[in-house]
Amino acid sequence: MSLLIRLQAPVHPGSRGDARLLGIVLYTATLLRPETLQLLSSVEDKAGFIKELYAAASALSMFRANYSYGLISQELGIPEKTVRRYTRGGDTISKLVSSVLSELESRGGYIEVEIPSVESLKAKINGLEEENKELRKRIQELEAQVSQLRNTVELVKARLKELQETLH
């Protein structure tokens, strides 16, 4: 069982507070999307990914509040070039945030986000732990086979050396 929450924000913010609210909704809804979670699980730098997602959501919300590229850059501490990329949907993260904004607009300023239940996550973790145990066991078996093969190769080398000495 999962939990469905409804997030709401003005799609055309008129104040700094509205822009922040839009940024938070964009960030939260984007982060909790299945495709974002899947992408997050496959990236090496998860903290960097989350930080960039936050920056993209914030930049887009500020842009919607008619902040200049320079002001957004200054507020977020990122280069103007990056702000432009975020507001134009120039990379994967920006496209994810932009799609959430489009959905938010089409629904009149609200979006529903599904949060997976803890039980389903626990079940998934338990399954992964079992798979991990099986893989570790298989690794140990393979390491034992490699060790056995090394011993066999050493015996063959020794036997070949003996034969070679016998022939000379």
Would you write up a description of this structure?
Residues 118-166 form a coiled coil. It comes from Desulfurococcus mucosus (strain ATCC 35584 / DSM 2162 / JCM 9187 / O7/1). This is Transcriptional regulators-like protein. Keywords: Coiled coil. This protein has 168 residues and is mainly α. It has two domains: 3-116, no CATH class; 118-168. The protein is built from seven helices and two strands, in the order E-H-H-H-H-H-H-E-H. The chain has helices at residues 16-31, 34-42, 46-64, 69-76, 80-88, 92-106, 118-167, and strands spanning 3-8, 110-115. It has a two-stranded antiparallel ribbon. The longest helix is centred in the C-terminal third of the chain and has 50 residues, at 118-167. The N and C termini lie far apart (78 Å).
Task: State the gist of this model.
The chain is mainly α and 168 residues long.
**Strand portion:** 5-15%
How much helix, percentage-wise, in residues? Answer: over 70%
Judging from the principal axes of the Cα atoms, what is the shape? elongated
Query: Class by helix and strand content?
Result: mainly alpha
Q: What string, H for helix and E for strand, traces the elements in order?
A: EHHHHHHEH
Q: Can you tell me the number of structural domains?
A: 2
Major β-sheet annotation? 2 strands, antiparallel
The total count of helices amounts to 7
Radius of gyration over C-alpha positions, nearest whole angstrom: 27 Å
Order of strands in the sheet with most strands? 1-2
The total count of strands amounts to 2
Which residue ranges are poorly predicted, with pLDDT under 50 across at least 5 consecutive positions? none
User: How many angstroms does the end-to-end distance come to?
Assistant: 78 Å
The pLDDT mean sits at 91
